[in-house]
Amino acid sequence: MISPLVRRRRLAQELIRLRDGRGYSSAHVASAVGVSRQRISELENGRVVPNLDLVAKVLKFFALAEEQRQQLMTIARDAQERGWWATFAEEMGTRQALYADLEAGASEIHEYQMVYLPGLLQIQAYTEARIVMDRQDGATYSLARALEARAGRQLVLKRPDGPTYEVIIDELAVRRFAAPAPVIAEQLDHLVVVGHERPTITIRLLPLAVEIRQHAVPRSAFFTYRYRDPQDPVVAAVDTVTDDLVLTDEADVNRYLDLYARLREAALSPGDSLDYLAATAEEIRRTIHNG
C-alpha cells in the first residue's frame, strides 16, 4: 500500500502544476467545473481525501491525454485508501497514525533522534515506559492499542519489499535515560542485535562532542521518506513537542536532507556505533549491580 497522505500531496502538486501551466486561477477552474473555489483549494492543499468525481471533472477541463488522465486518477484512488491505522487513530494516538501512514510504501527512511531511542526499533518495555510518561490528562488513546500499533509499524521493516532504514541516534538519547535503567540496557542490546543481523537497517551514533560541518545544530528529531514512484514527493516530518510538521515543498525538504547529510558525516561508523551501544549497555548493568 502507498501512503495515502503522500499520494494526496502528489495529486495536489500535479493539479497545481497543470493549472499554473495553463495560466488559470483556482477561481476560474472552480467556475468551469461548477464548484466553489474552496473545493478546488481543498484539492490543491492535499489535506483532505479527494472526491473522485471532482478530480475527474477537473482533469476533463484540463483536456489531458488519456494516459496522463488515467495516471492521475490512479493517484487519486490511492489517496482515498484507508490504511489499518486509520480505523484506530484515536485509540493508538494520532501521531503514531501519521507516521504509520508515511511509512506505508516507503522505499527509504532516514531518521535523526535527539532524545529518544528510535520507535521503529523499540522494545515493548521502552515503548510502554514512554507512553505512560508522555500520556496527558484527557488523552483518548489506549495503552494496549498504542503498543499494538507500534508493533504493527515495526513490521514495515521486516517485509521483503520493505524500506531500507537508517537512524542517527544522538548520544544524548543514550546518556539521558528516557526509561528505567534496566529497560535502557535491554533496549541498547536490542539495537546492537538488530544492527548486526538485519542488513537493511543501519544505526549510527552522533557523539555529543563531535563537530558538525558549519556548526549545524539540529533543533528536533526529524525523518525523511522516499518512495518507489520517483514522482512522489520526498517527505520530511519534524517531531515537535505538541505536533508533527509534514513537509513536501522541495526547498523545505532539502534543508532537512542537507542537515541529515551533515549529521551523517559527523556520526560514528555503523560498526563503531554498535560497539559503543554494547559497551554502554554493559556499563549500565554494572552500575545497576553495584547499586
Automatic annotation (TrEMBL):
Source superkingdom: Bacteria
InterPro entries to which the protein is assigned, alphabetical: Cro/C1-type_HTH (IPR001387), DUF5753 (IPR043917), Lambda_DNA-bd_dom_sf (IPR010982)
Record-linked PROSITE patterns: HTH_CROC1 (PS50943)
Entry-linked Pfam families: DUF5753, HTH_31
SMART domains associated with the record: HTH_XRE (SM00530)
Domain named HTH cro/C1-type: residues: 15-68
UniProt cross-references to SUPFAM superfamilies, sorted A to Z: lambda repressor-like DNA-binding domains (SSF47413)
GO MF, one example: DNA binding
Protein name, per record: Transcriptional regulator
Annotated organism of origin: Micromonospora inaquosa
